[in-house]
Amino acid sequence: MKKIALGYGIALGLLVWGVFVYLFVGGCSFLGLLLMGAAWAVALYQWLHDRKGQKQWKILRLCYLAAVALLLVLTLITGVFVYRASLGSPETSCDAIIVLGAGVNGEEPSLSLWERIQAAYDYLEAHPDCVAVLSGGQGDGEDITEAACMFRELTALGIAPQRLILEEQAESTQENLAYSLPLLEGYETIGLVSSDYHLCRAGLMGKNLGLSPVGIPAHTTYPHLYVNYFLREIVGIWYYMLFGG
């Protein structure tokens, strides 16, 4: 009875925690969903454990544990690649960079977009001969394109307008890259500026388009947001490898 109470108690705690994170911690909806999913996984294991006296349930429980173990191993391995890519190579000198867009709130950059703008500014300041393609169209809730927002902020920081090329049609990371590459014909070493957690998946997409990009990370300001997006990227990478897009 104590084991039953413990298993379901842990599941209930994870469920409550997940609901709280999902509803009240801004920007962490995926982490909340993940915690809720973990709650159901623990509850299911406890339910299977309660039927350990029956052979068929024992086999099912072992299969369940094997599947969970495999999932955890794949998550760990993928996480290592995501983390390594998140470090990037910002010291590498590039002829041009592509700055991937993110959300715009009206005409103001979201936190993610501002982090990418700052990373692009730092790189362009350190490499005065480098040019940048600012890539991003206009989505719901955006009064201007993401590219236009980046252009406005970078020029306000002192970057010369002639160093900035606008790509204002892209609506996804794949389109960011596909639409930007034709604008950079003749440039050899190309860097990719994006959020640190996003560089692994963006790099995979770039390689599928024939690009070997140099990762230039925009560091995530808040640790809880990094954890949320880091875990989401692990799922995103597997989705991309299995289904594309």
What does this entry look like structurally?
This protein has 245 residues and is an alpha/beta fold. 58% of the residues lie in helices and 12% in strands. The chain has eight helices and seven strands, in the order αααβββαβαβαβαβα. β4, α5 and β5 form a beta-alpha-beta unit. It is elongated and about 75 Å long. The mean pLDDT is 94.
TL;DR of this structure?
This protein is of the alpha/beta class and 245 residues long. It has helices spanning 2-24, 29-49, 55-87, 111-126, 146-156, 173-180, 199-208, 223-243; strands at residues 96-100, 104-105, 108-109, 131-135, 164-167, 190-195, 214-218.
Alpha carbon gyration radius: 22 Å
From the spread of the alpha carbons, the general shape counts as elongated
User: How much helical structure, as a percent, in the residues?
Assistant: 55-70%
Unreliable runs:
none
As laid out across the biggest beta sheet, the strand order is 5-4-1-6-7
Contiguous helical run count: 8
Secondary-structure element string: HHHEEEHEHEHEHEH
Q: Give the class from helix and strand content and strand pairing.
A: alpha/beta
Q: Termini separation (Å)?
A: 47 Å
The fraction of residues assigned to DSSP E strands is 5-15%
Q: How many strands, what sense, and barrel or not for the largest sheet?
A: 5 strands, parallel
Helix and strand arrangement:
Elements: H1 2-24, H2 29-49, H3 55-87, E1 96-100, E2 104-105, E3 108-109, H4 111-126, E4 131-135, H5 146-156, E5 164-167, H6 173-180, E6 190-195, H7 199-208, E7 214-218, H8 223-243
Parallel strand pairs: 1-4, 1-6, 4-5, 6-7
Antiparallel strand pairs: 2-3
